[in-house]
Structure formats: structure tokens, C-alpha cells
Amino acid sequence: MEVQSKALLYSICTIAFFFPRIVLALRTLNSNPCDRTALPESHTLRSDQLTVLINGYSESRIPLLHSIAATYAASSLVTSILILWGNPSTSPQTLSQLSRNLSILYSAGAAITVHSQQSSSLNSRFLPRQSINTRAVLVCDDDIEVDRESIEFAFRVWQSNQDRIVGLFARSHDLDLINKTWIYTVHHDKYSIILTKFMILKNEYLYSYSCGGGERMRRMKNVVEEMTNCEDLLMNFVVADEAGTGPMMVAAERVRDWGDPRNEGKEKGKGEAVEAEPEVQVGLSSVRRGRREHMTRRGDCIREFHRILGRMPLRYSYGTVVNSVGEQGLCQKAGKLMLCDDHQLS
After folding, report:
1. Nearest CA to 102 among 26, 7, 20, 197?
2. Catalytic center residues
3. Which whole-number Å values give the CA distances from 61 to 9, 89, 182, in the listed order?
4. How many CA atoms, within 13 angstroms, populate the side-chain half-sphere of residue 96?
5. What's the distance, Cα to Cα, between the start and end of the chain in Å?
């Protein structure tokens, strides 16, 4: 084990020497992430940019990860990108190659670091990190592609609502009056949960999640471990409990969700079976589980969090923030009713 550790350390040092903008970062894993003296002071954090935390797990998604990282790196509002690799079985050679490739392809953009996690725990994606020097963090998955304009718009919305979670994918909790129990669901007119597919929140909430809350928080994080799911629900509990308000959903111009099980996949020849894309078949929290089972398990999490906490902090929000406002009035043009802003082509 000692020989392997020395070999890995030598590999890391070699990468850091030849590719200084991208490093396979393991040095912070042995330190105490809850040591406030080792973290940047809040008044020193930048508020004009954000840090992106991409959760990575499956090697089959690495090509997609390249594309996603490129989009974030190209934005002037992103100061750095941390790829949090949560699959301990991935070889150091594979991660080293990932680091080298990202360094070569995206050296001109925001700095990118690959952090190899010690375990596959979903709680690790919310660990405080010394390298985060911004007030805002964007937590996202490795299978969500968002256009740059929408990323920057979501960040501007967050800048005016820094105590809230801002994101693109919303869900709801609800009370099943018949069975007298909390459930996880989707409402078309309200929401109380933003998913970690894409969420922006303030840096301080990482510390609250990982280091605060005492025994109750420890027990709730154990639920996440047991379920291999629900870390996003627990973060929504944490933020709603501190802020006393619900999240905010923003509209995006273009979002591609490669991991959604409703993707139909690539078609083969006539009469052959259709296989799902490899990006759909992998993942950590809901791999190959049916949608109904997934919803049930997350309802179980909400009930457990409520039981342990002793209260329900989640709050509903209504409506979606949009990037542009157009005319909604109808006018008659060339014998047709159309939006007044629309131009009739001859």
C-alpha cells in the first residue's frame, strides 16, 4: 500500500509540473474539511464569479465531461472548475489521462482541477474546500449540458438572491392526506426543491451541510449514505431551514439531460432493438431503477429527514425567472391574430 501511495504521489507531482493549470488534487483529502482556519474567510470570497463543482463517477461519461467542462471554462464568470471524481475504483492512470486531456484542450479558460474522492459518498460533493475562493458555487452533474448564456443568467439571478438556491430543475414535497405521509412529487404550479443537476448556492452552505447541525445532521447524512441518494434533498432542507424561504427556478435557453432515463437512445437497423445511450445507463444515485421506485425512495428520504429534524423546513416557490420578456398582446396582421411583436413575412 505504501509503495502504491508513493507511486501515485509521484504521478501527481509529474502532472502538476508539466500541466500547472490542471492537477489531480489529493492533497486536501487528508486535512479536516471542517477546520474553519484552513478555509478562506468569507469577506475575501469573490462575488463577481463562481466556482463550478462537477460530480463525476462513470468513465463512460468522460467524453461528455470534456464537452461540459469546455462550456463552463469558456465563461468569464467562472473562476475555476472542480471535477469531484467519486468512483474510487477508477485507476489513477485514467484520472491522470483525464487531467492531461483537459489541460491540453482547455488551457486558455478557467482553471480545472480533478479531485479524486476517497469514497463514492454523495455527501462528499458538498465538502468545504480550501480552493473555493468565490461566494457562489455551482453544483452540477456530469450529464447535464447547459448553454453558456443560461449559466450566466442563472448566476445573475443568484447574485440578487444569495440566501436561496437557484437552479434549472425543480421538484416538490407534498403531504399525502390519505396516507398521512410526506411524498416526493412534481407540481406544475409550485416547487420546493432544486436538484443538483444544476444548482447555485452560496459557499457557506457547504459548511452548514458538512460540518453543522450536530447529531441530527449526522443522522440525516447517514440516510443519504444508506439510500445512495437524496443529498440534493438534504441540501434543500439545510438551506430552507437557514434561509426560511424556498428556492428559485430559472428558465434556460438550452439544456440537454443525457442522464434522463426517458432518453430513447440510438436506433439500430430496422427491426433491431433500441439501446439506451451509455450516459443513461450509468450514474450513482438511480442507476437502472425505475422512475416509480426512484420517486418512492426519495419520498422515504423526505419522511426520514422530517422525522429526524422534527419539522418541515421546505417552502414552496411559484413561477420561473425568465431571461427576456416579450409582448403578450395579440394583434391582427394580414388577417391573422399573432403576438404584436411578431413580424408578418410577405
Report:
1. 20
2. 232
3. 26, 15, 34
4. 15
5. 76
